[in-house]
Every structure is written in structure tokens, then in C-alpha cells.
Amino acid sequence: MQELEERIRRQGTVKPGNVLKVDAFLNHQCDVRLFDHMGAEWARLFAGHQIDKILTIEASGIGIACLAARHFGDVPVVFAKKTQSINLDGDQYTTRIYSFTKQREYPVIVAKRFLKKGEHVLILDDFLAKGNALHGLIDICHDAKVVIEGIGIAVEKGFQEGGRTLRKEGYNLKSLAIVESMDPDQGTITFAHNPA
Length: 196
Description:
With 196 residues, the chain is an alpha/beta fold. The protein has a single domain, classed as Rossmann fold, CATH 3.40.50. 28% of the residues lie in helices and 34% in strands. The chain has five helices and ten strands. The chain has helices at 2-11, 32-45, 60-69, 132-144, 162-168, and strands at 13-15, 19-21, 53-57, 77-80, 92-99, 104-111, 120-128, 147-157, 173-183, 188-192. The strands form three sheets. It has a six-stranded mixed beta sheet, sandwiched between helices. Helix 2 (32-45) packs across helix 3 (60-69). The longest helix has 14 residues, at 32-45. It is globular. It starts with a helix and ends with a strand.
């Protein structure tokens, strides 16, 4: 998606350790108009697929998922929580995910009443690098016996294995921007347009 790539080029910051900061418009300050355009693009990419619910993970996925839902007929958005709280009651699907960004493992929880057997689910998230968060959401989907219609990602780090692994596993993965390489010294970012 050219609009997203241009924003990454213009406002993204490359840091050492394969870190791409896009907090000016994607995962801290949110550009709602851009999110709406991203939702329209995912609706185009997943046209013809039955989507009953969108599943994401807190916190950065929530905004993009909510705006995307408007383009799928206002389907509900369910977000996996990363901490147990008194507001989470009843039976739950749980798994554990290791976050390389936060350098720790955390639980991922979805109340069972929000994912029903046989529902068709689209998973959306802001970033894909190694794929740990997505595999956690996939585990929850398998436990819930829902149909994963596809996975939509805003920014995929194509030089890391997450996207390749998910595609080899047979998932219909559509990333709006695939970063092929980043150079923290030069501050340059290149994009791939044909996922492996």
C-alpha cells in the first residue's frame, strides 16, 4: 500500500536492533484517516471471504481493527488481553507469547463467549516480525474451533521469518507494507512488493 509505505519513509525511524519506530502515526499517535484507508485495502484484499469477527491483540492492534471493521460490514472486533483482570470472567482461551520488543513472556486471554465454534475470523495486527503474537492468536483460534479466513498486517518485516513461516503454514497473509531492509546508519528503508 503506497500510502502506508510513504508514511513509513517520511515519519518512520530506524533504530539499531531491527527496530522500526512508527509511533507518529501507527502505534502511539494514531492517524485515523490512514487507518480507515488501511481498512479499505484489507477489505479489498479479503473480498469474497466470509468475515464474522476480527481478532487482534492489545494495544496497538485495536485501533486499526476497529476502523477496518467498518469496511467488513461493522463486524465485531475482539481483542486478546495481555493481563488477567477482574473484568475477565467466565471461561477463557489462554496462551503465552514471548515479546521481543518487551523482552518478556506474557499471557494472552480471550473470553470464550466472544469466539464461537465455526465463526469466520480475520486476524489483524500492526506488526509482524518473528510471528510470536500471531501464533498465539492462531492457537486461540484453533482452541475455539473458528475458521481463520486470513491474517492482515500493517507492517511486515520481510527480512525476518514470521511472514515466510505463516505463508508456508498455509495462512492467507496480506501485509500492507513489507519492509525488505532497514539501515539505522543511513536511516533508509526499502520495501518488497512480492512476498516470498
